[in-house]
Structure formats: structure tokens, C-alpha cells
Amino acid sequence: MTNFPSSLLAGYTAFRNDRFIQENRRYKVLAEKGQAPETLVIACCDSRAAPETIFNTRPGEIFVIRNVANMIPPRKPDGEHHSTSAALEFAVTALKVKHILVIGHGRCGGIAAALTSPSGSREPGDFIGNWMDLLTPSTQKVLAEPNLGPAEQQLALERASIIRSIDNLRTFPDIKQREAQGKLQLHGGWFDISSGELWVYDSDLGEFVQP
Ligand SMILES: [Zn+2]
User: Fold this and answer.
1) pTM score, two decimals?
2) The CATH number of domain 35-209 is 3.40.50.2300
3) Average pLDDT across the chain, whole number
4) Which of 106, 112, 131, 196 has the fewest CB atoms within 10 Å, i.e. is most exposed?
5) Percent with pLDDT over 70 in the chain
6) Which residues pair with 199 in a beta bridge?
């Protein structure tokens, strides 16, 4: 006997009897030939912002890294355990993805935590606080802006964090090099979980626009 969640088992049964059968050929090819996704997506852990759902992708299409507030820390080769950097390295050097998308979303709890608990002296075990401190310069900038209400601060930091992560992607030499060679493109996006709108970062305009 196990107490495996029945809702997950029901979902699995539906998948096995429907989508897995429909996509059976695709799964077999992927199993035999391996994966070759062209896009790496960095998304938040938030249960409402799953990139496979938002972009309606099929198995094998996108390689996904999810963490709190879809962040890329700057490269830091210090011998610690960097799960995001490890997955990033695999996607870039082994899979040779052609696109990297950092996708943020509205009502992000990680961003809200950064705004309500700005950095100070953190306990080493405050993992969320320490993680969100990656954004400290952006958080301070947003909090210092006059005339921004809480919702506007939230949106401003959600979007600033995406741009910051794109900047941090370029601290990885392989990414910087592949981008310069035209083999890799970096993108930013923001998804509104309430309206379903997608906004994408226009690097020429320096702002998010609806595609
Ligand atoms: Zn989030």
C-alpha cells in the first residue's frame, strides 16, 4: 500500500490513456534518438505559470529550468551546488539550444517577497531571502521610485528581474560566445496569469511589448 496522491494517479491514468497514445510515435523517437530541444525556458516554480502549458508544447520541444522567480544567478564557480547553472550548462554546451527564454509572470510570490523583505542581514537558512537578494539592486531601485503603488512596484520588479537574468546569462562565457556568433538568441517574456496576456522584451525599445 502507498499513499501516493490519488489526484496524481488519476492524472497519470488520463495521460497514459490519451496523450501518451496520441503522441506515442513521438515518444518512441525521442526515446531512441534522444532529446534535441531548440529552446531553453527559465520559468518560475509557480504552479500557475507552467511554460509547457503557456506555449502549448509537445514532449521534447522545450528544456525547462524552474526556480523561485525564474532567476539566473551570475556565474560563480565556487565549488558550491548550483542547480540552475548546471542545467544551464547542459542546455547550452550539450543540447546547443538556439534560444533561451526567461519568462516571468504576474503575481509572483518570489518577487513579492523581495519587495516586502528587502535585504539586510539574512540567516544562512533563509533560502528564499538569500535567493531573492540576487535582485537587491533592482529591488532598491523600484522601491526608490516615486509614485509607484504596490501593484506597479510588483510589475516593475517582475520585469526588471527578467532583464537582470538575461544580463546574468551573459556572464557565462559559452552563452556570450554563442550569442556573438549568432548561434544563440536570448529572450525575455512576461505572462499575466489573470488575463493570459504574453508580453515580450524588445531590446531595442528597452521595454516589454505585446507581440
Ligand atoms: Zn513566480
Assistant:
1) 0.95
2) no
3) 96
4) 196
5) 100
6) 190
What distance in angstroms lies between residue 59's CA and the mean position of ligand 1's atoms?
Answer: 23
Separation of CA 103 and ligand 1 centre (Å): 10
- Going from the Cα of 143 to the center of ligand 1, the distance in angstroms, rounded, reads 19
CA distance linking residue 108 with residue 7, whole number of Å: 25
The domain limits of the chain are 1-34, 35-209
SS3 44: strand
- Look-up of cell digits 564557480: 77
Check whether 17 has a pLDDT greater than 90.
yes
CB 187 within 8 A of CB 102: yes
Ligand 1: centre distance to CA 110 (Å):
6
pLDDT 10s digits, 44-54: 999 999 999 99
Average pLDDT (86-115) is 97
For residues 173 and 184, what is the distance between their CA atoms, to the nearest angstrom? 12
Interatomic CA distance for residues 105 and 49, integer angstroms: 7
Cα–Cα distance between 131 and 122 in angstroms, integer?
10
Residue 2 Cα to ligand 1 middle (Å)? 32
Ligand 1 center–CA 47 separation, angstroms: 9
- Residue 23: pLDDT band with limits 50, 70, 90: very high
